[in-house]
Amino acid sequence: MARVTGVRKYLAVCGIGAAFVALLFLRPFSGFAAAGTLALGVFMFLRQYRQPRPEGELRKGVTALLAAVPEDDPYRLLFEQSADGILLLAGGRFIDCNAAAVRLLGYADKDELTGLEPDSLSPVYQPDGRSSREKAEAMIRIALAGGSNRFEWQHVRANGHLVWVEVLLTRIVLGGRPVIHTVWRDIDARKRTEEEAARAHDYLQSILDNSPVGIVFLNGERRIERFNPAFQRLSGYSANALQGLSTESLYAHPEEYERVGREAYPELRRGGDFVTSVTLKRADGSQFTAALFGRAINPQALSEGFIWVIQDISDYERLEADQRLLARVFESSQAIMITDANEIIERVNPAFTRITGYSPEQAIGRTPRILKSGRHGAAFYAGIFQTLRQKGHWEGEVWNRRANGEVFPVWETISRVEDDSGQVTEHYISLFRDISEQKRLEAELEYQATFDRLTGAYNRQGTESYLERELERSRRHDHAMSVAMLDVDHFKEVNDRHGHDVGDRVLKGVIRRTLEAVRETDLVGRWGGEEFLLVLPETEAEAAERLAERVRGTVGEESYEGVGRISVSLGVAELATGETVEALVKRADEALYRAKQGGRDRVEMDPSLS
């Protein structure tokens, strides 16, 4: 006899089990609809446990209840295998979460998230200027009062990078008290696409507004839909008069209007450009010779309209300069690659050749596989084409290979072009730019923000960040942790007597010898001047003292040319219960002071550890 789950037993008792199970299995789950159904299921499954319990017992109860659900139960599958992060929030803290939430923030397991408040996983302030703590409390209040709340939020990943998520909070009752069912959807790519689109729009608008030549957009009936200030000045019409005006009114001679229509539009339909010169007239009736440069927005659908560039060429020398300018305007700095539906390359632009090293003759007729670097597996490319089939557009980072074999990163956008019916794919258009320098600069900036330029040790900011993380980990797992403050003895005399270059060499040598003495799990950071802080995770006071003595002895073995041997003094302190980073470092610094006062070249422990 098949086992009946606790959920179905409860629903049977309520008299609605059959209807709800039918709804569960007949309706597809996706996105926040699935998350909402999961919230309802969890709510109904747990209503029978209504006796108030402390948060710790409540979390254990949730874990036990979910563990009791069969592995093939839809609720469990939704919770554990959902692509969206799902968490339970009680008393302002997360009490459980699924694997997707852990992956989204880049943590090792759920234990690193449970017990935390939402704002501790967030920047201090959200992009709207509100503090994360204040806003999180407000969003939770809304969900508790109204039953649910949906909003966008920025979290901080374990690596310090920000990520955008769409959040759905749903109020459920668990153990007789309200619990917030939380769903995170990763919208980081969408937000960055929106930002890129906004920048592209601003860039295009800047070109239109600042171009010295007239630019006008026409609909399929050759009526004006949009124009730039240069065109308005050229025509002499007001903005209201131009909107919807037939271009026939701009021609000095009707037969030229007819000629342009007769000659231009067959060429534009083939995807070509049309260039000619005509005589136009301004609003006041004055005439001028103009060069026209036209292009269809979509050659396969001329009803979508055209773009025309119009330039007064009364002065022939000015015409030549402006024609060169027009050529530059229509040449993209990004690589462009157009393929047919079978991925055969049909066309590339000069930027493609410049970036990849492949000439048009080498690329046309082949497939984009000539650019494969080997860094991505088949699943990566299959995912791209699945997205193209579903959405018609894909954007992301790809590692390509140049013609000379060099592997390099690009930011690539691929669009699917369909026929008029929207059913058949005709082309794929790929635009990409080399981001090698961008990634190098990002890595350099990250290094500069974390490491000391002189010694290569962590700088103070990087040390403080690491120390905060280790302190939190020590509290969470109830591990010991110690720190040791190290100071180079008589360093000022070295600088004064031998100069700063020698002093710099001494500091580098001290760090090198210190790193030889500590463990791989320990961190050595430059705290300031000739002071360095050793962060010693999972280390009690006695072990920390022995390690400090080893560092002192190892550094003292080095002899520097013209200086001789250098000694160091260290002060050691072990983390006390409930102690802050500031208090811990202060005790280590005080112990160091006693070591200096006691004659230097020695290790002193914080008296509270004796």
What layout of secondary structure does this protein have?
Layout: H1 6-14, H2 17-26, H3 31-46, H4 55-68, H5 74-81, E1 85-90, E2 93-97, H6 99-105, H7 132-146, E3 148-156, E4 162-174, E5 177-186, H8 188-210, E6 214-218, E7 224-227, H9 229-235, H10 239-242, H11 254-269, E8 273-281, E9 287-296, E10 306-312, H12 316-329, E11 335-340, E12 345-348, H13 350-356, H14 360-363, H15 378-391, E13 393-401, E14 407-418, E15 425-434, H16 436-450, H17 460-477, E16 481-488, H18 491-498, H19 500-517, E17 523-528, E18 531-537, H20 541-556, E19 559-560, E20 564-565, E21 568-574, H21 581-597, E22 603-605
Helix pairs in contact: 1-2, 18-19, 19-20
